[in-house]
Amino acid sequence: MITRSFLSVALMGGFLLGSVSAFGQATEAVDTMFLNDAAGTRRTGHIVGIDASSFKVQVPLAVGGATATVGVPRAQVSRVEFAPQPTRDRLVANPVPANIPALSVEWQRWQAFLPIAKSPAGAIGNAYAAALLATGDAKQASAALTLYKAVEKDAWSDTDKATAKRGRLRALVATGAAADALTEAAELAKDSEDPTVLIEAKFILAEATNARLHKLLEDNPRWIEDPLVRPERDRLYNEALDLYLHPYLFLGSETEAASRGLWGAVQVYRFGGDDANAIESSRDLVTLYKGTRYAALAQDYLNKLPADLKKQDAEKEAKADAGN
């Protein structure tokens, strides 16, 4: 057991007594704490935990290569710079189901740091939730929803909060709470000033509108002859297209969202029997968003077209008509 007096001796000149010093001489990246004293003192080391009153910091002892954990009052710390960790950063950048165990470990470590400025906690929570959602399992989607709510509520970063809000909408749909997601998506689509949140809201509305279109025609197979059904079919058809195409038309640099929406529009065109626009949109997808999974789907669709449809080029024909 390390006594108070031994710990004080072991840390002399390092943590307790130095004005600008390191917790140790480890070569790996360390966290930096900036104290709010007049001298602008900085302390470096490994922050391993936090509670309501203090940061928990791992420090090396002067003998034997051992370490101890000491508390630094939060009231004394003005800000923290957290060291980059390439392994953690790779996990956050690749939120796939295979990385769920490792992301879970990171989340357990960092969750308490959600409100601490510059901490990676929000990004970790969002990545963990995205990986859970990617499994397609309802129970995992429920866990993802809980994670997104936590990040949206407590994260220090507005960017992480916006990501969590988009994720929460997707998780609501995946858990079967589509009605709640639609209600919120409608409000966000009307009021949101954040384009990335607006994109997600419009996509959820597009999916719902497309589903209503399919249900309407399933229930009314002779819709084209029905003067009451036909206007509703046309309204849903055009509304679904407008919603799907929004990111492609107005935020084309948002590659994932734009390609996803463009592929959604292809499906609507195909369902409506508009082969020309389905083909042109697929060609746009392949050309503009090469490398995305939606471009791969579009290319597969184009490859399987009958020979007569492959020859169609609506854009070229339109230009020819304009020239005439």
What's the arrangement of secondary structure elements?
Layout: H1 4-10, E1 21-22, E2 31-35, E3 42-50, E4 54-60, E5 67-73, E6 77-81, H2 86-93, H3 100-110, H4 121-133, H5 138-154, H6 158-174, H7 178-191, H8 195-219, H9 229-250, H10 255-271, H11 275-288, H12 293-303, H13 307-310, H14 314-323
Parallel strand pairs: 1-3
Antiparallel strand pairs: 2-3, 2-6, 3-4, 4-5
Notable features of this structure?
6-stranded mixed sheet; Serine Threonine Protein Phosphatase 5, Tetratricopeptide repeat; single chain; disordered N terminus; 6 strands; 14 helices
Tell me about this structure:
This protein has helices spanning 4-10, 86-93, 100-110, 121-133, 138-154, 158-174, 178-191, 195-219, 229-250, 255-271, 275-288, 293-303, 307-310, 314-323; strands at 21-22, 31-35, 42-50, 54-60, 67-73, 77-81. It is α+β, with helices and mostly antiparallel strands and 324 residues long. It has three domains: 4-80, no CATH class; 84-176, no CATH class; 189-317, Serine Threonine Protein Phosphatase 5, Tetratricopeptide repeat (Alpha Horseshoe), CATH 1.25.40. Strands 1, 2, 3, 4, 5 and 6 form a six-stranded mixed β-sheet that branches. Strand 2 and strand 3 (42-50) form a beta hairpin. Helix 8 runs antiparallel to helix 9 (229-250) and helix 9 (229-250) runs antiparallel to helix 10 (255-271). The protein is elongated, with a radius of gyration of 27 Å.
Annotated CATH topology of the largest domain:
Serine Threonine Protein Phosphatase 5, Tetratricopeptide repeat
Helix content: 55-70%
CATH classification class of the largest domain? Mainly Alpha
CATH architecture of the largest domain: Alpha Horseshoe
Q: Compute the separation of the termini in Å.
A: 92 Å
- How many separate helices? 14
Element-by-element helix/strand order = HEEEEEEHHHHHHHHHHHHH
Average pLDDT rating: 86
